[in-house]
Each structure stands twice: as structure tokens, then as C-alpha cells.
């Protein structure tokens, strides 16, 4: 049984803050500054360039990838860390299209995160082979998969509402039609149990700065199914994906297995922060995290609906159909969220009218949920959100 009092102590949370935005950026684990200080002073500082060998920097993308693999139901040696999520989406999608050369359709849904769609559009333009991005409403995604589908590109959890796709059904349908699946785990990894291997995903990608708490700009990860890993042709053939990077050959030869999905020089400080942040998962059962997340989410929804009649639930009511966040719609949602932040409750806002609240049991408990509901109720009852300062838009919402 997971001890959530123990996991809460793992984080360096600001005094007096109720943090309900871990679905956007996880808080600082207290182990991270210690690890970074060690890497900077004792490794980079004393070893300088010899740290690539002596401190094992060169192997960190695979070693840390294996730690993430355990959280997403992947076998060791099938996940590698590095670059950004946008890059990893591009790599996975380009590989999938190359493996299905006679098909021209990329299927996704209108609830997908825009970056995934932007990367697909850019890839289509650069390939110039007649591919098309076919978007459907989220509820119609399964029906949109057909015999011309090369790849299904789907983010499991909607970044706005928390609506959760049925990945088992979608993967089964895609494979029945001969398509490959790219599963975006940005709002899944670390939020609830994931089984990319058991469900037969072909590719999976995700970021590490949300539920994995690795910090702003933390590197992304990519999974490739073992049966595909030596068949994919890297679209981004960077030197770290080469079979022998330090042979400095003028011609590219793809590395073996997941190593060919490496691109450029790994960001060692960022990966070290991720490695330290992952230590909390040594103490955690993801099934317990999911059960507690559902309980806290239900508590939050019940409290808000009882106290704030002007807010409308945007997330699915069935907890099995949503991830680890709750969203409410309110015409003045941006201003209301700024009022909450001013009172020490940090969530965030997504246009046009969605107030988002991440429910992350590693550091949020029932007391925080109840206090957040009370503060939101006071803001709505007094119209405190209507102060001009709360309506002024910042660059990041």
C-alpha cells in the first residue's frame, strides 16, 4: 500500500500553496537540487568531459528510459529519453508512415493536443507524398480508422477536459485494419497504470515534466515495440542514433533497437533531474495512485457542484472515462483562476472557458481538496474574479 504522507514529503512545495497544476508542470522533488549539485560539481566540475565515460552520461538516455518503461508497461530496452515530445511525435509518425508506404491517411481527433497535429501537418508537407491528416470528433475516432489508415495518432487523455480514450479498443481496431498506433502518454504516464506492451502499442511517446515531475523543459521519451525497433528508419538521423557515433562515418547507419531513436547529444542535467524525480516511484504502486486520484476527483467534483452552481463540469462524469484531472467550464474562467492563484490555489486555464485542476495524490490530499473547494466557492459567491487585474491575460495561461 502506497504511503501518500511519505510521497508528499518527497516534494519541496511552497508554504501555503495548494498545487492543483501537476497535470501541466509537476512540483520540485527535493532530491532534484541535490542530484543536480552532485552532477554539476562532482561530475561536470571535476570530471569535465571524462564524465561521458566515468559518470556514465552516454548511457543515461537508455538507463533512465528503463525506469520509465516500468511505469508504462514496457520491457527493458524499449524506451529511450531525450529531445522534446514534439520531436518524438515526429519520429514515431515518420517511422509509422515509412512502414506503411502504400497508405496515405493519418487518423487523429479534434481533441488531440495541437502540437501533435502541427507535427503531423509539417511531416505531410515535407514528405509531399499525398498523405492527409483526417480528424474526427473524439467519440468518432474508432469509426474513422479504415483500410487506408497508415497510422492512428492519439493522445489518451484530452488536455482540456481529461476525457480518456479507450486505448484497448482503438489499438485493436487499428491493428484489425492494418494500421500502426502512436500513443501519446503526456497525460497518462505517472497518472495511472499504462500497459503499452500488453495492449500492443506500436509506438508510445510522452513528456516527463507533468506527472513525472522532472521540471520545465524536461526531456521526452519514446517507446518502440520490440518487433519494430530494428525495422524503423529514423527520419531524424542524428549522430547519437548512429550505429557507431564515435566512428564519425560520413554515411548514416542506424543503431540497434531503441538506440536508433536517439537524435542529438543528450541533455545530461535535465536527464539527471528526471532520474532523481523518478525515485519517488520506487515507493509507489500506480494502482494505488489511480484509486486515490479517483477518490479525490470525486470529492472535488461533488464539492464544486454543491457550492458553485455557475460552474459546469467539462470532464466526463464517469471516473473510468477521465484521467487525473478535472475541468469545469465558466465564462470568466481565466479571471476566476487568477483569483484562485492569488489566494494560493494553483490550477490553470485553457481557452475558451476551461478551468483545469490536476489531482495528483503524491502531494495532494483530502484536506487540500476541501480547502480548494472552499476558496473557489468564496470567489464565486463574492464575484471576486471580477477585479480588473484578474482579467489581464498573461503570456502563459
From TrEMBL:
InterPro entries according to UniProt: Kynureninase, PyrdxlP-dep_Trfase, PyrdxlP-dep_Trfase_major, PyrdxlP-dep_Trfase_small
Keywords assigned by UniProt, alphabetized: Hydrolase, Pyridine nucleotide biosynthesis, Pyridoxal phosphate
One Pfam family cited in the UniProt record for this chain: KYNU_C
Cofactor: pyridoxal 5'-phosphate
Superkingdom, taxonomy of origin: Bacteria
Annotated TM spans: none
Designated gene of the protein: kynU
Protein name: Kynureninase
Function: Catalyzes the cleavage of L-kynurenine (L-Kyn) and L-3-hydroxykynurenine (L-3OHKyn) into anthranilic acid (AA) and 3-hydroxyanthranilic acid (3-OHAA), respectively.
Reaction(s) catalysed by this chain's protein: 3-hydroxy-L-kynurenine + H2O = 3-hydroxyanthranilate + L-alanine + H(+); L-kynurenine + H2O = anthranilate + L-alanine + H(+)
Organism: Kangsaoukella pontilimi
Similarity comment: Belongs to the kynureninase family.
